[in-house]
Amino acid sequence: MSKNKTNLEVLEDIENSAITDKHIAEFQKSLDKDVKKIVKETDALVTASSDSEISTLSTNLQISYNFSTKLRDILPLDVMLTDDVRKFEDLEFTNAHLNNFTRRVLCSTLGKNYDTIQDQDPYYYDVLRRVAVVVVYDLKFDVIEKTKNAFSNPVGRSPKKILISMRDINKNEDLKKKYNKDGFENAHVTFEELTSIAKHFVLGVKDANYEYASKLVKLLRSIDDYTADAQNFDSISNEIKKEEIELIQTLSCRFMSMLDKDAQFNTIASIKTYLDDYTNHKNGLINWHKSYDKTKIKCVNFVNFKNNKTIFANNADSLLKQLANQ
């Protein structure tokens, strides 16, 4: 019984539910034979689709577990390291880093060409992109159970859960309240819950229910969550796709203007190096730079006209430093 409901209110709920059941039964009885057949067929389709979703959630957990536990020692994590960051645990992740991790670590581990897989088999890539944050979370914080069976046995029509350490979650009252009310050292969570937890610790994405956020932040978080899982157009027609592209162009330019007006030059420089990086082994718009002959044309950041010297930079700090020294 809910703590906020009286016995009378509970009885009223039961009675209302019984009335609803009666109305539904009467409606179903009123349908003719052909319509009932279609209803039954549709119900079976919905059940099959929901079964598929349950199976997918369980499978995503298994994929995450295989990468972070069974394949942990052979993952090519060194490709993510830099001169400044020599330990994977010390890497600070953004969605761009997760994309790079998906392509260069997860795709490579499975023998897939990370330059072509996203175009040739976007659904395959999206699965890897979806589990990437969970894999990174365990690689950095070692939370998934390794010494015994980590998976729960599903009860009824529900997905598997996986056993993880709650040591860091218990340090945060909001997370503890949401995922581990009883304060256990370890607890089972679903793939959706683990993804939410992973985003908190890997990307710094906080639960909007427990913090103040501007309207813009809330809107951008929704876009960020959507594009993090699937970086393909969600078009239902050519006209819709055209509108999607126009909106992306408009908003990209508008956001750049907002950054410029607020003198956020480091962010602008970071975006510019991302756009202008034409090498295949770094983070950039690879397909865009493949569209022209790089033996004849080089996409560069800036050229100093006094000495005709080209500025090359692979991060914002390097670019800003070189611009300041010209």
Folded structure, characterized:
This protein is mainly alpha-helical and 326 residues long. It has two domains: 45-214, no CATH class; 221-324, no CATH class. Helices cover 57% and strands 4% of the residues. The chain is built from twelve helices and four strands; from the N terminus they run H-H-H-H-H-E-H-E-H-H-H-H-H-E-E-H. The protein has helices at residues 7-30, 33-70, 95-109, 117-120, 122-141, 173-179, 191-203, 215-229, 238-261, 265-276, 286-290, 316-324; strands at 162-165, 186-189, 302-304, 309-311. Helix 3 (95-109) crosses helix 5 and helix 5 (122-141) crosses helix 7 (191-203). It is globular and about 85 Å long.
Task: Break the fold down into its secondary structure elements and pairings.
Elements: H1 7-30, H2 33-70, H3 95-109, H4 117-120, H5 122-141, E1 162-165, H6 173-179, E2 186-189, H7 191-203, H8 215-229, H9 238-261, H10 265-276, H11 286-290, E3 302-304, E4 309-311, H12 316-324
Antiparallel strand pairs: 1-2, 3-4
Helix pairs in contact: 2-5, 3-5, 5-7, 10-12
